[in-house]
Amino acid sequence: MPLPNLPGLIILDSTGKPIIQTTFRTSAPAFPLLHIGAFNDAVARSVSTGEEVENVLYVPGSLSAGAAGSALCWVQRGDLRFLCPVSDDVDPLFVFTFLNTFLTILREYIGDISASRVRENFDLVYQLLEEMLDSGHPLTTEPNALRDIVLPPSLLNKLLSVTGASGLPGSTSAMPFASPIPWRRHGVRYNNNEVYFDIVEELEAAVGRNGVVLSGEVWGQVRCQCRLSGTPDLLLTFSQPRLLSDPSFHPCVRYQKWTRDRSLSFVPPDGSFTLLTYMVPPPPLAPHQVPLQLRPHIVIGSGTGSFEIGLISRAGRVLEEVKVVWSLGDEATGVQASMSSTSGPVSEKDRGSWGFDPLTRSLEWTIPTLPASASLTLKGTFSSSDAHPRTSPAIQITYTMPSNTISGLKVDSLKLVGSDTYKPFKGVRGSGRAKIEWRW
């Protein structure tokens, strides 16, 4: 089955002017201009109406740009908008996957993605576009293979370009695609061989007013930073591999090995990459997976309201970056509140700070570090210009777990198979982030 066709990609600055675009070889000359104009019109309408611009826009056709209509997929990074019009029946997920891959590689090459950085590295960005998108089809999207073709910027290359000399290939291969493995460069050498794995999980849950978890999903990624010489063959096993559902693997993973015994056998790319993404199946969440308990007591009156929000940690560990946000309605004008602790003396830092955001009309309570088993209370009143304040029926809570995963997934072992040349240093850590909607 042939891959869908992506006619090209357009990069716009914050004013809607194009900075760079690929050559639309299979489309009429007016095709990219039609989509730039349609996108800028949508942005102008969103400014006047206050509505967000959809990430997939329908663009009517025209005689100069083709009779049929088309879809325009776009994403924003910093002050730049990346537009990818598709005229055929193309799945938008395919387009967004390519855009995210391009942005990841672009960040590796130029650092922060901004209009100034793209203009400074115009030739480099154009080379990446031409190599990654060939006549409307994604071609070379592996960072290790691209480094053999498009040299990453370096201080030496910049100095040589100023003096008129040609750049040096540095650590790249003598010939592009010299490696038989598409995702790994040929002849990689390190003085210190090391590999690090990060298991990062995110929880999204909704909790009812009685404290029962109504719904919840855990999504995870296994990220890797590899600095190993030669062509290493790794075998990674998990302590509870049956936790993983709907896994998506990097192309380096041998899938048959996974289906046979739930272990990961792979030759890793050089550098940073995502080895695996997964979901934890959705049976009822265990109590330790939602390690916070909220006890809100809210009374709404005429043009005002009172609240007492109790926050109790049920975790056996410290939680960080805890944030409680409650929208008080569009007509809210101010908040008066005080914080206290019911679990013994707590420092002012551990109690955090609260504030009223006049833009979002929200009460925000931020706690940088929440000790294990801590119990805090935020009590106060708010005022509103509306006689019947319409506050949000749910309170949003976010937090991070710096050294533990939410599902309890751990790496059981990591082995370098079939080589005694060196013994690499291995590091594994887990972390979790959560976003909980607590209804009152």
UniProtKB/TrEMBL annotation:
<dbReference type="Pfam" id="PF00928">
    <property type="entry name" value="Adap_comp_sub"/>
</dbReference>
<dbReference type="InterPro" id="IPR001392">
    <property type="entry name" value="Clathrin_mu"/>
</dbReference>
<dbReference type="GO" id="GO:0006886">
    <property type="term" value="P:intracellular protein transport"/>
</dbReference>
<dbReference type="GO" id="GO:0030131">
    <property type="term" value="C:clathrin adaptor complex"/>
</dbReference>
<dbReference type="InterPro" id="IPR011012">
    <property type="entry name" value="Longin-like_dom_sf"/>
</dbReference>
<dbReference type="InterPro" id="IPR050431">
    <property type="entry name" value="Adaptor_comp_med_subunit"/>
</dbReference>
<keyword id="KW-0653">Protein transport</keyword>
<dbReference type="InterPro" id="IPR036168">
    <property type="entry name" value="AP2_Mu_C_sf"/>
</dbReference>
<dbReference type="InterPro" id="IPR022775">
    <property type="entry name" value="AP_mu_sigma_su"/>
</dbReference>
<feature type="domain" description="MHD">
    <location>
        <begin position="192"/>
        <end position="440"/>
    </location>
</feature>
<protein>
    <submittedName>
        <fullName>Clathrin adaptor, mu subunit</fullName>
    </submittedName>
</protein>
<comment type="similarity">
    <text>Belongs to the adaptor complexes medium subunit family.</text>
</comment>
<dbReference type="InterPro" id="IPR028565">
    <property type="entry name" value="MHD"/>
</dbReference>
<dbReference type="GO" id="GO:0012505">
    <property type="term" value="C:endomembrane system"/>
</dbReference>
<dbReference type="GO" id="GO:0016192">
    <property type="term" value="P:vesicle-mediated transport"/>
</dbReference>
<keyword id="KW-0813">Transport</keyword>
<keyword id="KW-0472">Membrane</keyword>
<dbReference type="InterPro" id="IPR018240">
    <property type="entry name" value="Clathrin_mu_CS"/>
</dbReference>
<dbReference type="Pfam" id="PF01217">
    <property type="entry name" value="Clat_adaptor_s"/>
</dbReference>
